[in-house]
Write a structure and sequence with these properties.
By secondary structure, the chain is of the alpha+beta class. Helix content is 29%, strand content 36%. It contains nine helices and 28 strands. A hairpin with a 2-residue loop joins β3 and β4. The longest helix is centred in the C-terminal third of the chain and has 78 residues. The N terminus is likely disordered.
């Protein structure tokens, strides 16, 4: 990677022995649940919190009359404040508060200082006590061999590589026999979020060499320190650099085995929890007594914005807009471009929450990403990450804060869809730390019967194939029936249309005849005569219009029906039925 070299002189000046802070927060503080031990380190404090058998490294500094700091657990940093009280400290982290009483100690002693050497004259069988190199206050021991050790810590206040090194190198000056000699320093010149320094030193008189590496993020800096004897072989460095052996704090949890009814496997259930899953082939949900959940294998199908279903929706939406009608409701699906796990969580959470609310379920909001790390996956073209986050669920009772640890995998399905697959345990924030070991134990206790899983999976695929075939056949029959009905409907509509057209034409023709006959009556009255026909000879003559009735009646006295009137309307517009 491109490197940027720091001034070695400047870094060497940083490792001078640190002076103790003037404000005295050092000492040991206790409550019924936790113990806090602090040691002054230059302008800051280091130490640890003990809760039962668990130990959490602490770093802190004084600000505005309070002690502000963080403690680390499983690689995650959590903030706290410690406010001075008459008898000790009020310790607060998230929504938990502890009243700590300061224990009486020798005012000239440092509670975390290296134990004073034993007087050799008091017992000549005991040699002087050696410097304690098993721990580095404020750091977590990662690996240890006969040649050296590796440590790690979080520094929330360090936002750059340089500030991370500036706060780390003084710690090393107090760990080794004398201040280490910095032999090189570097920083990623492109991203500026990674770098470190190399050094040489002596530990109990033996020459050692090592390096400090750090990586910064929005949560501060992650610092790793590795050192070994100067003549240590490469294999020793490989051991020190390897990932630490994993421990399972949840292995001591008492679990009752729950067998899936279909024989696909089993899972352990902690006291007070319940599971009603019928198979290991689908999502497994374990419900806790206080709204905790362990969810294994939740699958969320996602369509891309340019998928066929979204293209059809946009076309229908555009058509509705042109026709000035109500647009169709969006399809009830998740939509997003293909994303890696962390971004998938934050992007899809609002959509999932909206769908949940339509089903009467709580609204869910991702409040803060607490930590995340890459994970391995066997799926091709897939991405996997572990994510710790805080969230809020809101229903009728109001908002409730939760914590969750989730293992998320995203992988493409075809060209216009992908899936987010989730294994997660979550619970109310107030009890999450206490519930986490049991939830982790249940999550890790899943056992699958591979033979039955394969058989049931094949049966499921066959059943789905049969259902799909039946559905296709039913759809084909329905389509043909719909085509038949549509053809009959079109034919009837055409018949009705033609009948209406003919009725319209007939009405129009009759209207024209009526109109013409009315006009003929008017014309005949104006011109003043009417035609009279001799029915025997067919001869026609014009007779005075106003006396025509009297004239025809007189002429027909001796021979009724001999003569008849022919009104002008009958000459021009005879009442012949229109066909």
């Amino acid at each position: 990677m491109p490197l940027r070299t720091f001034s070695l002189i400047a870094l060497c000046l940083l490792i001078a022995p640190a002076a103790h802070a003037a404000t005295d927060y050092s000492g040991k503080y206790e409550s019924p649940k936790i113990t806090l031990e602090l040691k002054s380190e230059a302008a800051a404090y280091t130490g640890q919190i003990t809760m039962g058998q668990q130990h959490f490294p602490v770093t802190a500094h004084e600000e505005s009359g309070k002690l502000l700091g963080t403690f680390t657990s499983q690689g995650n940093a959590y903030p706290f404040t410690a406010t001075p009280e008459a008898a000790g400290l009020t310790f607060a982290t998230d929504n938990a508060t502890y009243t700590l009483k300061k224990l009486a100690t020798n005012p000239l002693a440092n509670p975390l200082a290296t134990p004073a050497p034993t007087n050799p004259l008091a017992n000549n069988t005991n040699p002087p006590a050696a410097t304690d190199t098993t721990t580095l206050p404020g750091y977590t021991l990662v690996n240890a061999t006969d040649s050296g050790k590796s440590f790690s810590t979080q520094k929330p206040k360090a936002t750059t590589v340089q500030t991370a090194l500036e706060s780390t190198l003084p710690d090393l000056a107090q760990y080794f026999d004398a201040k280490p000699a910095v032999t090189g320093a570097f920083e990623d010149a492109k991203s500026h979020n990674a770098g470190g320094a190399t050094f040489t030193a002596k530990l109990k008189g033996q020459p050692v060499k090592g390096f400090v590496s750090c990586k910064t993020s929005d949560q501060g800096a992650t610092v790793a320190i590795i050192y070994a004897k100067a003549d240590a072989p490469p294999a020793e460095w490989d051991k020190l650099s390897a990932a630490p052996p994993t421990t399972n704090p949840a292995s001591d949890i008492k679990l009752t085995t729950y067998e899936f009814p279909d024989g696909t496997g089993s899972i352990g259930i902690a006291p007070g929890w319940k599971c009603s899953a019928q198979t290991g082939l689908h999502t497994i949900i374990i419900e806790g007594p206080a709204d905790q959940h362990v969810v294994i294998g939740a699958s969320f199908p996602v369509s891309t914005p340019d998928s066929m279903i979204m293209k059809m929706y946009r076309q229908n939406e555009a058509s509705a807009k042109r026709l000035h009608i109500q647009p169709p409701a969006p399809p009830p699906i998740l939509v997003a471009p293909y994303l890696e796990p962390l971004e998938a969580l934050t992007t899809l959470a609002p959509q999932i929450s909206k769908i949940n609310q339509t089903r009467g379920q709580p609204a869910v909001t991702v409040d803060k990403i607490l930590a995340h790390a890459e994970e391995k996956t066997m799926l091709p073209n897939a991405k996997a990450q572990g994510v710790s986050y805080a969230m809020t669920r809101t229903l009728k009772g109001g908002p409730v804060h939760y914590r969750a640890i989730s293992h998320i995998t995203t992988y493409p399905v075809g060209t216009d869809a992908w899936t987010m697959w989730v294994v997660e345990f979550n619970g109310p924030e107030a009890t999450f730390e206490a519930d986490a070991p049991a939830m982790q134990a249940m999550e890790q206790s899943l056992k699958e019967n591979a033979e039955v899983m394969q058989k049931k999976g094949a049966e499921m695929l066959n059943a789905q194939a049969k259902q799909n075939a039946e559905r296709l056949a039913a759809n084909d029959a329905n389509f043909k029936e719909q085509q038949k009905q549509q053809a009959a409907a079109h034919e009837e509509a055409h018949r009705q249309q033609m009948a209406g057209y003919e009725a319209h034409n007939r009405a129009w023709a009759e209207g024209q005849v009526t109109k013409g006959r009315n006009n003929a009556d008017f014309v005949e009255m104006i011109r003043g005569y009417r035609t009279v026909e001799d029915t025997r000879t067919g001869e026609k003559t014009s007779v005075d219009y106003y006396n025509v009735n009297e004239i025809v009646e007189r002429a027909n006295q001796n021979d009724p029906g001999h003569y008849k009137q022919i009104p002008l309307r009958d000459e021009l517009y005879p009442l012949t039925p229109v066909k």
